[in-house]
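>> Question from a student workshop board

For tomorrow's exercise we were told to take the sequence and the ligand below, predict the bound structure, and bring the output to class. My setup keeps failing. Could a helper post the expected result so I can at least see what it should look like? The ligand is TV1.
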Amino acid sequence: NNGIKKPKGYTVSYHANPEMEQMHFGQKHPMKPWRLTLTNKIVMAYGMHEAMDIYIPRAASSQELKDFHRGDYIDFLQRVTPSDNTWDPDSQTYAYNTGDDCPIFDGLYNYCSLYAGASLDAARKLTNHQSNIAINWSGGLHHAKKNEASGFCYINDIVLAILQLLLHHPRVLYIDIDVHHGDGVEQAFWSTDRVMTLSFHKYNRAEFFPGTGALDDTGPLNNASPGAHHSLNVPLHDGIEDAQYIKLFEDVVKPCVRQYKPTAIVLQCGADSLGGDRLGCFNVNIKAHGACVAFVKKFNLPLLVLGGGGYTPRNVAKAWAYETSLCIGAEVHPNLPAHTPFLEHFGNEKTLFPKLDFTRYENKNSRVYLESVVMGIMEQLRYLQG
Ligand code: TV1
Ligand code: CA
Ligand code: ZN
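>> Workshop helper replied:
Here is what the output should look like for this input. Compare the format with yours to find the bug.
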């Protein structure tokens, strides 16, 4: 043991099923489920498992998946195999938007029901008070829609988990720091005031997936709809840096919590917002990404912590392991323990806080621009509780 103790006064649960980690989207596909193996190895090497309740979650049932998704879509995921030709000549797409981004691979349904089961179990640990912070790094797949796959996501485990929380909680705040817009979650709760969605993301309508999430997309335009002003978006340009990102996050999240008064928070920690990510374009370090988790933790509300994107596996694993340590409030040594398996996957770089590659994206976020974004958010918040 590395002297990591159970946190005082609260419980952290960690939901991880190793069966998921073996799955393959395909050789060249950026989504690598084995980044979860790397994450868990670091967590264990530090001895963090001693400080948490560890659960190997069950798969979600098809009935549970249908609480959000349409029945025929779930039936399709359940029976489709890689050799089926699902090409639809009428729409010129594969069925239910499967294809390059969302391939049909061996074990797909098992993969989907496992990450969804983990998020459901995690949410239920929170609602039955067995846990104060519940972590599922295999979840956070925010693009999946009611009846189609999108952006590497098939089942929206976040929506399913929030629906669980809503059985016990009047208001849930959803925060998304993945570099992509959390469109699937936003869309699912667009018309309700019981969930506030808040996504930070790179925004470029024509050039960056999924192209939604402008500052003025804040809910139904009809002010009579309860959902009006309850979808918040923080659109960003390339290259945002640590100090800017942390300040922006705090300047936006704090008033959201003060105005909306959530009784539970769901935090999607997509690690593609880190510098040097294969698909991302920000210049955020692991410590700054973690600072967002630490800030949200301070509200002392039931907290569901989820993964999401993250395409440079060695950095994803370090970020999520570090964020696990923040959740349990443990100080960990800034070098990985010597006995960490797979050190070769970390380029033999033992530091938990490697120098990331910031050469690819120049910072295009001016101080004035970020101030205008904060003002835009504040303007939306003024509409709440009149
Ligand atoms: C197969 C092989 C698929 C190599 C996909 C990058 C690949 C991408 C691949 C890729 C890739 C995207 C689009 C274009 C929609 C398409 C988990 C019509 C090198 C949460 C999802 C990004 C992000 C989807 C998911 C995006 C998440 N970027 N190589 N695909 N079109 N898709 O732009 O938010 O992180 O890139
Ligand atoms: Ca986001
Ligand atoms: Zn992403």
